[in-house]
Write a structure and sequence with these properties.
Layout lengths: L1 E4 L5 E4 L16 E6 L5 E2 L6 E8 L2 E26 L20 E25 L3 E26 L2
Antiparallel strand pairs: 1-2, 3-8, 4-8, 5-8, 6-7, 6-8
Length: about 160
């Protein structure tokens, strides 16, 4: 078991694992994920945020990241955006939005093309410090003028302290 040095010179044990299991709920290293599979992709409306999925995080300090897969079907698309947000169906501001600090909160891909296919884009990690249980959303938004677009993906959080 590792020892953590405390400011007063004492040492405390850090709970860890010596095998390939998961950290227990409430312990540093705890992982929470939620995934929406391609068969359950969320329909997008141009220039409107949509929740791809969400997770409920308890009080603590978390690193949150995600990936959104945009499915374009004959879509003329100019912009795909995604982000980690504390507000349902709302992209966070570029930096410092939604009370999430100054880390990069969202990713975007700017293009002008008409295609049928899937684009995979990552977002985060971003630090999320919570004083109470809170829902954290993986939000997607796209601008397109033809065809259809859907989104699926995964949000993942690891307790840092």
């Amino acid at each position: 078991m590792a020892k953590l040095s405390i400011g007063d010179g004492s040492a405390r044990a850090v709970v860890g694992t010596t095998t390939n299991d998961n950290a227990a709920t409430g312990n540093v290293g705890q992982v929470i994920t939620a995934t929406v599979a391609s068969g359950s992709a969320v329909s997008l409306t141009t220039d409107t945020g949509a929740n791809v999925t969400s997770i409920s995080l308890t009080a603590g300090d978390w690193d949150v990241s995600g990936q959104v897969d945009f499915v374009l079907t004959g879509a003329t698309s100019t912009l795909q955006q995604m982000g980690i947000s504390l507000t349902t169906a709302t992209l966070p501001s570029q930096a410092g939005g939604s009370g999430l600090g100054t880390d990069p909160l969202r990713s975007s891909l700017l293009q002008t093309t008409t295609i049928t296919g899937t684009m995979n884009l990552p977002v985060g990690p971003v630090r999320v410090s919570l004083s109470a249980t809170t829902t954290v959303y993986l939000v997607a938004q796209a601008s397109f003028s033809a065809g259809t677009m859907t989104a699926y993906g995964t949000i993942r959080a690891r307790r840092m302290r």
